[in-house]
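Please annotate the following for my students:
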Amino acid sequence: MAADDSRTETSSQLSSAGDHGSVDSGFVSPSTSTVSLPRISLTQPHLQHLNKQLESLHPLEILRFCKIFFPNLYQSTAFGLTGLVTVDMLSKLAAETSTPQTVDLIFLDTLYHFQETHDLVERVKARYNARVHVFKPADVDTVGQFEELYGEKLYEMSSELYDWIAKVEPLQRAYSELNVAAVLTGRRRTQGGQRGDINVIELDDERGVVKINPLANWSFAQVKQYVTENNVPYNALLDRGYKSVGDWHSTVPVGEGEDERAGRWKGQDKTECGIHNKQSRYAKLLEKSAREQAAPEVQAA
């Protein structure tokens, strides 16, 4: 699905050097188009300095800095609690000036979200006058169209392929069409798994974007307290035992004493959907297939 609008495009790529450690990147494939982005150059010493300074700041101050420092800044969100806190804080920053610089939202509509999630999106748009760019799996608008192309229950038959089609490729398309230079995420260290050692600012060198985790050092209790004290709209499913809400087919309530994201992909050897992984097994298979196809052409030449 095409985005609502696009912003001024430049041909420079974000550049980075060295090993970035725990970088949250997505899938790549031989068919992925090159992303054209504004230029943002951060050396490793500069990145380390920024993270050291931002680590002790309140998320509101981190967001204030990011709005000034990063061009073409967006927020990617599935409208979880952390993302909703970020939306609310951004609205407070916008209220400080007569000419607010808004941060648009990117929402990946996998076609398998709970109805409660779609209801929440509309409430957030009304409450904050938020501009939401919706991206769906390529060339489809409904579950019926999706399953006609890929079959029923692709999420069970090939979860990595499903993640690529429903989430990763749409996000790559969003970055490209919107010319995203930097993006706010809702990841926090206390969510566990691969998120336990994330920095406030990370470089996604596979995509050419800066990823910012403004609430990286907040706990679930802090997030929930902010939501309550500021009357932030949230997903009705949270009152039914859910703490992290994704697709209906891979999300269940969290049990007493379980981790915050224990209800996601329960029973599977999986904690992420792909957009926060360096690469997926499916992406690697695509690359291997492309190399094998290219080999005879090289020999023939």
